[in-house]
Design a protein that fits this description.
- The longest helix is centred in the last third of the chain and has 54 residues.
- The chain has a two-stranded antiparallel sheet.
- It contains seven helices and two strands; from the N terminus they run ααββααααα.
Length: 178
């Protein structure tokens, strides 16, 4: 179930990367966060499912940064930071699999997405209408091409027929049969 949280209270992953020296990249931050989640820590997520970090999360990440600087492994740093024993870690990992993390709903983003979807629907409707017009024009052109082809065949037949011979009298004075 989604939970409304003010986005001002949280910072994004790229801001965390800039504030904590040892992280260095979003991939590293993601690895740290996944290990913390595996051990039962809960992060908030925005409307797109991306993690967002509260002040408490920043403190934990800073502690991990310090521990990793003291030559601890990532797992050790997470365990110490979260204060977890091996049994607690196993229990929290099981709980984390069964629970869903609340999501932050960004109404402005949802409105922008709805507007984008409306524009896309409008564009698709225009494309369908345009496609129908092209189809109708194509049918008309095809009918005209068929008609011209038939006329061309008739003209070719007339050109291939030998002209009827007229008598001298008909050529000079005409006849009543023409």
């Amino acid at each position: 179930m989604a939970k409304d949280i003010k986005a001002d209270e949280y910072i994004t992953g790229s801001e965390v990367v800039n504030k904590i020296e040892r992280i260095g990249s979003l991939a590293t931050l993601g690895n740290w966060a996944k290990e913390m989640e595996r051990m039962g820590h809960k992060f908030q997520h925005d409307g797109r499912g991306r993690r967002i970090y509260a002040d408490a999360d920043m403190k934990l990440l800073q502690q991990m940064n310090d521990l990793l600087g003291d030559r601890h492994t990532l797992k050790q740093a997470v365990d110490v930071t979260l204060g977890i024993t091996d049994k607690e870690a196993a229990d929290k990992a099981k709980e984390a699999k069964n629970e869903k993390t609340p999501v932050v709903i960004d109404t402005k983003m949802l409105q922008a997405q709805n507007k984008d979807l409306s524009e896309i629907k409008e564009m698709l409707a225009q494309l369908v209408k345009q496609n129908q017009q092209y189809h109708e024009e194509n049918v008309q052109l095809q009918a005209q091409v068929t008609e011209l082809t038939e006329m061309t065949k008739k003209n070719e037949q007339l050109l291939q027929e030998p002209p009827k011979k007229k008598s001298w009298w008909q050529r000079h004075f005409g006849s009543d049969e023409d």
